[in-house]
Prior knowledge:
Mean pLDDT: 96
Strand order of the largest sheet: 6-5-7-8
Distance between the termini: 65 Å
Shape: globular
Largest sheet: 4 strands, mixed
CATH class of the largest domain: Mainly Alpha
CATH topology of the largest domain: 2-methylcitrate dehydratase PrpD
Oligomer: single chain
Strand content: 5-15%
CATH superfamily of the largest domain: 2-methylcitrate dehydratase PrpD
Helix content: 40-55%
Radius of gyration: 22 Å
CATH architecture of the largest domain: Orthogonal Bundle
Number of strands: 8
Number of helices: 21
Low-confidence stretches: 1-5
Amino acid sequence: MAINTQVKADHNAPAITQILANYISSHPSKGWDDSVEHEAHRTFLNWLGCAIGAATHESVDAALHAIQELDPTQQASILGRKEKVDMCSAALINGISSHTFDFDDTHLKTIIHPAGPVASAILALSEKTKSSGREMIDALVIGIDVACRIGNCMYPDHYDRGWHITGSTGTVGAAAACSRLLKLDKEKTAMAIGIAASQPVGMREQFGTMTKPFHPGGAASAGLRSALLAKHGFTASAKALEAPRGMIQTISTKCDWSEITDELGQRFEISFNAYKPFACGIVIHPSIDACAQLKAKGVKPEDVQKIELRVHSLVLELTGKKTPADGLQAKFSVYHGCAAGLMYGKAGEEEFLDHVVTDPKLIELRDKVNATVDDSIHEASADVTAFLKNGEQVHIFVKHAIGSLENPMTDKNLEEKFHNLSDPIVSKETADQLIKLCWDLAKQDNMSKICQVAQGK
């Protein structure tokens, strides 16, 4: 006997698809204040450094080899590499590389990494269309706004169901940004949104594998393809987002439409973007910060008997891997994060290399970390106590980790991070040139130059 498990649908939802299409196609260029404009430049700089930094990772090699079997037209650049491929493939691969280190931007309210899908799509498109930096920034702000507003509408139910929200919302955000860059009218923009709404990508089961960074790459590629299809007259439902059997009501029981419509065009979600000082899941950051502070206080790994860590339940749900086997898995291990923070005082990409993760000394320290759930502690905080062999106890409580909105990375911090990621790939001199181009992005006549420099040419 069939069981009816259908959730009661909302048949009176506002016309979200049309509202967003109108916003995307008609919002004025630079229609925001200087703080939003500056945040867009920070977002692009951080994203570009992350993408270049992972350019030679085995996941990028594998993806590129697969794409080259299709004999793609050389339309757009692969960041940090000499190869060029078609636009959609470039969006895919640059999206993969930008998220491979799990070092990219985070919209903290939803845990969306918005630049991966959006910037990867519009950079590939802008190189082909020779769009200006001003057009690129406009598309970036609006595309991220669309992705994160949809995320706000569905979070946390959608995420709790197992969706990787970066990929699912990123597909629509990328389509929105590409529609803006292509100057599609309201009707065709609505079609691009509708096409993208049938392609949400990403399951949380894939965390710790190469497929996790595939999600923003796949979203970037699908969003770009959706805009190109709409440009040439391909059609979709005009209410693909909000309909009872549309995207949002299909993949989430929480549908807070006001999260999409309230202050649309006045409040921009890119303003709530944060940037990672540590190359791992965002919920580990407070614990790493606390352990790095233990090191700064003079606590040495060899003097530690045990480390008691108290965190919100979400931290262990997402990053509770006790025995990670490699760097990708370690990015979802709060135990490794604590050990790296105390041993090295930092947790950049080097601290998540495979040989570091399997270092017997680090494993010995990692095994001394005991994590317990305390939901009175906010998910963005951590309480850490080091019990030393001499009987002393050293306690650190981190309310807001470095990189949070309350304790943000400075522009100088972002430049240092960019150098750490990019210098080994394209040289320090090239990285210096790219940093200047990123800060001057809105002034660029077209995006081809930055793409050429980012290839190391």
